[in-house]
Design goal:
The structure is a homodimer of 442-residue chains. Helices cover 18% and strands 25% of the residues of chain A. With 442 residues, chain A is α+β, with helices and mostly antiparallel strands. Chain A folds into two domains: 125 residues, Fumarylacetoacetase, N-terminal domain (SH3 type barrels, Roll), CATH 2.30.30; 298 residues, Fumarylacetoacetase-like, C-terminal domain (Fumarylacetoacetate hydrolase, domain 2, Alpha-Beta Complex), CATH 3.90.850.10. The longest helix of chain A has 16 residues. Chains A, B: Its EC number is 3.7.1.2.
């Protein structure tokens, strides 16, 4: 388990004032990695600090890194972070320590570093974000018992949890090619559905939903045929992001039996651009969920032992909705979900170990999402299907109602970890707006 | 639809004698692309001819290509064929025409080309094959009604076909990272299963199976959000290979509800190394399967019109089994499956159009497999689950029996297209042997 160190010191501040404001997502204790570009130019790696980005290539050129941090800094400057992820958490940690030193207010050379701000810092608002890594595989889990139970009850399925739910973290392979970064519009898909009268039709999705999830990027990974025991799983969890697993519910319901969701998911998946490292989240670890009495214990290969019992993470997750009417009248988005990652039945380590337990090779930059992160309360329902069951609309502050997402609706995901005695850190936003379906080509 | 041309001429022969032998998989009418390497050296692109490989890099250096074929030839020399696939079937066709000229016996310059054989040809037996492309995504379909019906009947599921089977080609995203080339051993996976008494256990797979499938490599592909109408699908079907979709049936049965197969498939998928181009298969096109009376017609976007009615392919597919006992006594492998790709309920074009119908972006080098290619007869059952239903063993010529694959068993897939008036072409072999499971790490 990652130990806390000077980079987590709650008293540490940056010479960049915007990083020290309360509720800033990117204080010096965070330092997430991402890939940005000036409009029309090539992507480059950077680290978020306050309202700015540390341009890693410029910082490397300025001679700010030496030794192991220099090797990692060069990887962090590349147009995709796969090589940095492949170097593992040790390299990321060495790099973090040096970046924290460069940016902190009380470093002996702070005045010199601050004088370089114009050269090495980029205003976040001036640039566009890109996918942080080339994503070779995208796996989506299904590990909130609350999400699972609500969905099955709404469809009249018994028992409330599938028989395997408590024995293994259920997952499916989703589509990596259609994962995209926050801010890109999401085209409403065409697809097949079965109508109430039994006939089957093809046309624009009539049940467009979002799903609020947490995702991880895989670090070094494993060779084909060689599993990852649970105690080694943390070495392969490189960083975290928010995931909106857009879901076309009418298409999903018709296509998913017997081989699972396919086109209902591959229309697009949006992720937040900043990858929060495992080390930055170390202060926010939490015990794994306590299983309800009577549930089976995990099989030995999935059982957290005493040293690993902090398998969970205490991360607040929110979804907000901005409709075209709200945007036109300059209203704020409305919060429609407030949940916490603590509610997941399985830990990320258990998900990773299960994933590789047959020898399946995980690779640097693979994206693994948790599944809809719903909790026990109504407020914590993390997708429209749970809120409306496809028939009972939610009412927004301006009086509008929604059963599913309409064209022009924008969903904004936010995530934040905070705990007494620590500086809270944020994930930034994951935004996506629904564009109207295309007419089928004549 | 690809027209036949001089490269298909059944009278055309090569100055390389091995290519002219009857039943040769790689006559001059075939010319499949692949990637090979000398032991310990870097991979390089080549084209199979008889018992040799045309080393594309050497052929390019020798000045044998000019114009569009030269551009394609350079892509065909690379260590992965993604760029060649991205160039589309037009470029592949121009390259094929030139390679056929270089290798044919009756070309005016044949003597000059033949004199270069030592330089540009590599003996197939001296080199190792590699994956032909970087596979960004692997999608597995489920489009044989015979396979589907036998499986559901064996499990007591009703109706014999899922309700959506006749409306859409059912598919799931499978795992791309564990796709490997013929000849690499396949490690028996560990995994979870539910025993007959209801308890759940983790350990070596007790139901290791194979699945005989045909696969295609995607050519140019589509942009996210923009579908591929059926009439355009052939432009994106670049080439064909054999696929062994290794399946762990006990793991599959326990994990697959509700989100489909996951670890039961990602242990490994083996493919044949040579990619037979769509143009090479043009003489073996066949009408799409005639749907049984009473089946619904495809919805308009999946309906082959008059010009596209030859959506099927007439390709013989076989699976052979070689047990350790048979190998020790130098027996030949035993053929356990003989089927034909004509039996599939959906065409490859329909699969591709369905896959992109929601806007999902297909990319050069994506692998799309047909699903187990079983036909109506007992001989055409294309996996062990259909043959044995998990309880009735098959008996091999030497008296051995099998319900599932045992450690050391090697499965060999073969494919061949032939038709009166044309020279038959083959796919080469797709081989894989089962290695014992690893003990779980202590």
């Amino acid at each position: 388990m990652t130990e806390l160190n000077a980079t987590h010191d709650p008293d540490r501040q940056s010479w960049l004032e915007s990083a020290n404001e309360p509720d800033c997502d990117f204080p010096i204790q965070n330092l997430p990695h991402g890939v940005f570009c000036w409009p029309g130019e090539a992507p480059r790696g950077g680290v978020a600090i306050g309202d700015a980005i540390l341009d890693m290539a410029t910082a490397v050129e300025a001679g700010l890194f030496a030794g192991i941090p220099a090797e990692a800094a060069r990887a962090a400057a590349e147009p995709s972070l796969n090589r940095l992820m492949a170097m593992g958490n040790g390299a990321a940690s060495a790099l973090r320590a040096r970046i924290s030193d460069i940016l902190r207010a009380d470093h002996p050379d702070a005045a010199r570093f601050a004088a370089m701000a114009q050269r090495i810092l980029v205003p976040m608002e001036d640039v566009e974000m890109r996918l942080p890594a080339g994503i070779g595989a995208f796996t989506d889990f299904f590990t909130s018992s609350y999400h699972t139970e609500r969905g099955r009850r709404a469809r009249g399925e018994e028992p409330a949890l599938p028989p395997n739910f408590q024995y293994l973290p259920i997952a499916y392979n989703s589509r990596a090619s259609s994962v995209r970064v926050s801010g890109e519009a999401v085209r409403r898909p065409n697809g097949q559905r079965q109508r109430a009268d039994g006939t089957v039709a093809f046309g624009p999705c009539e049940g467009q939903d979002f799903e609020l999830e947490l995702g991880i990027f895989v670090g070094p990974g494993n060779m084909l045929g060689e599993p990852i025991p649970l105690r080694a799983a943390p070495e392969h969890i490189w960083g975290f992001c928010l995931v909106n697993d857009w879901s076309a519910r009418d298409i999903q319901r018709w296509e998913s039996t017997p081989l699972g969701p396919f086109l209902s998911k591959s229309l697009s998946t949006s992720i937040s651009p900043w990858v929060v490292t495992a080390e930055a989240l170390a202060p926010f670890r939490a015990p794994a969920l306590v299983r309800p009495a009577g549930d089976p214990a995990p099989l030995p290969h999935l059982a957290h032992d005493q040293d690993q019992r902090l398998g969970g993470f205490d991360i607040d997750l929110e979804a907000w909705l901005l409709t075209p009417d709200m945007a036109a009248s300059e209203e704020e988005p409305a919060r429609i979900t407030r949940t916490n990652f603590r509610h997941m039945y399985w830990t990320l380590g258990q998900m990773l170990t299960h994933h590789a337990s047959n020898g399946c090779n995980l690779q640097p930059g693979d994206l693994i999402a948790s599944g809809t992160a719903s909790g026990p309360t109504d407020e914590s329902r993390a997708c429209m299907a749970e809120m409306t069951r496809g028939r009972d609309p939610i009412t927004l502050p301006n009086g509008e109602t929604r059963i599913w997402l309409q064209d022009g609706d924008e969903v904004i995901l936010r995530g934040r970890a905070h705990r007494r005695g620590h500086v809270g850190i944020g994930f930034g936003e994951c935004r996506g707006r629904i564009d109207p379906a295309l007419a089928w080509p004549a």
